[in-house]
């Protein structure tokens, strides 16, 4: 009689075997001592990652390296000649390559200019932002974000098309790239990219609006979006919830980071105004925003009107029309 634990053990072993045999990312190019010259001659620039088995720092760097490979491999000139390639090699097993590049510790990163034979060692911190800066400076080549398999819709016009999906709710984040936490929103390692790849992706369409790239501001005016970063969540049924979309004092303006967005999504049913305010339809929203003077869901401290601009009336003196005109002025319409 076969013990009951045996099938479970066999399943576990087969699972580990499949995981170990899973093919590497198609963007990663690995080479060895038998293909040194033909590999390096295949591109103007070769950025090489030397690693060793069992190296904890190498394992930690692997995700960043894969992102870098995605962004830079397959960049070619007009004749389809490779301009740059991101390579990796096991420095312990491939001693010829290690000796050629004088590598004796791991991980080591080096850039080869094949035409000039110049070799530059990378010595900065091993994060994607610094790696991209290094590559751009040394090769004069920009990363190819079209290679990134992103679940985010980057929208410059016609934002309305993503509202009212029959199968998914929609989260729209409004930002500008110079704001803290949002400088590198296109990078695969950015937290909004990671959220869009998480368990939320089954139920939510993720949209990002870089306000600097918007073709027109009609949507911003319609939904009174004048603070960045901020977000609006639309349900399939037509309800929506705003979060910090109105202007606030700089001292009370919350940064929008991964934890805040995750908390917002996990507490959508929460009626607390600190987590935004639900509207059943646009008519209810327009009445509240444009015909009333209390915006507590978006302005937790200042409850009347929009932020003052220099030389404007005090909030208590503003009429409803004045407040709307001020909103339009502040968002640049």
TrEMBL record:
<dbReference type="InterPro" id="IPR036249">
    <property type="entry name" value="Thioredoxin-like_sf"/>
</dbReference>
<dbReference type="GO" id="GO:0003756">
    <property type="term" value="F:protein disulfide isomerase activity"/>
</dbReference>
<dbReference type="InterPro" id="IPR051063">
    <property type="entry name" value="PDI"/>
</dbReference>
<protein>
    <recommendedName>
        <fullName>Thioredoxin domain-containing protein</fullName>
    </recommendedName>
</protein>
<dbReference type="InterPro" id="IPR013766">
    <property type="entry name" value="Thioredoxin_domain"/>
</dbReference>
<dbReference type="GO" id="GO:0005783">
    <property type="term" value="C:endoplasmic reticulum"/>
</dbReference>
<keyword id="KW-0732">Signal</keyword>
<feature type="signal peptide">
    <location>
        <begin position="1"/>
        <end position="21"/>
    </location>
</feature>
<dbReference type="GO" id="GO:0006457">
    <property type="term" value="P:protein folding"/>
</dbReference>
<feature type="domain" description="Thioredoxin">
    <location>
        <begin position="34"/>
        <end position="136"/>
    </location>
</feature>
<dbReference type="InterPro" id="IPR017937">
    <property type="entry name" value="Thioredoxin_CS"/>
</dbReference>
<dbReference type="Pfam" id="PF00085">
    <property type="entry name" value="Thioredoxin"/>
</dbReference>
<comment type="similarity">
    <text>Belongs to the protein disulfide isomerase family.</text>
</comment>
């Amino acid at each position: 009689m076969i013990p009951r634990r045996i099938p479970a053990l066999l399943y576990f072993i087969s699972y580990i075997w499949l995981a170990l045999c899973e093919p590497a990312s198609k963007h990663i190019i690995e080479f060895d001592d038998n293909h040194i010259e033909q590999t390096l001659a295949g591109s103007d620039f070769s950025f090489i990652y030397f690693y060793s088995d069992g190296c904890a720092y190498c394992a930690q760097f692997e995700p960043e390296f894969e992102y870098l490979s995605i962004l830079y491999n397959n960049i070619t000139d007009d004749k389809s000649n490779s301009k740059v390639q991101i390579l990796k090699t096991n420095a312990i097993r491939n001693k010829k390559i290690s000796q050629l590049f004088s590598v004796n510790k791991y991980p080591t990163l080096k850039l080869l200019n094949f035409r000039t034979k110049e070799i530059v060692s990378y010595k900065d911190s091993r994060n994607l932002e610094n790696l991209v800066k290094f590559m751009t400076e040394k090769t004069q080549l920009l990363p190819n974000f079209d290679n990134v398999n992103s679940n985010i819709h980057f929208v410059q016009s016609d934002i309305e098309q993503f509202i009212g999906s029959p199968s998914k709710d929609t989260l729209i984040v409004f930002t500008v790239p110079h704001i803290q936490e949002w400088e590198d929103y296109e990078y695969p390692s950015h937290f909004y990219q990671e959220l869009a790849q998480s368990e939320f992706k089954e139920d939510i369409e993720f949209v990002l609006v870089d306000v600097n790239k918007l073709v027109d501001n009609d949507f911003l005016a319609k939904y009174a979006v004048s603070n960045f970063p901020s977000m609006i969540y639309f349900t399939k049924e037509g309800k929506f919830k705003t979060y910090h979309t109105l202007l606030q004092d700089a001292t009370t303006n919350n940064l929008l980071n991964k934890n805040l967005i995750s908390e917002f999504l996990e507490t959508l049913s929460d009626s607390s105004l600190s987590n935004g305010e639900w509207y059943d339809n646009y008519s209810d929203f327009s009445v509240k925003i444009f015909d009333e003077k209390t915006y507590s869901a978006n302005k937790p401290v200042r409850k009347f009107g929009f932020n003052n601009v220099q030389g404007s009336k005090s909030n208590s003196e503003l009429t409803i029309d004045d407040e709307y005109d001020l909103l339009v002025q502040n968002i640049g319409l």
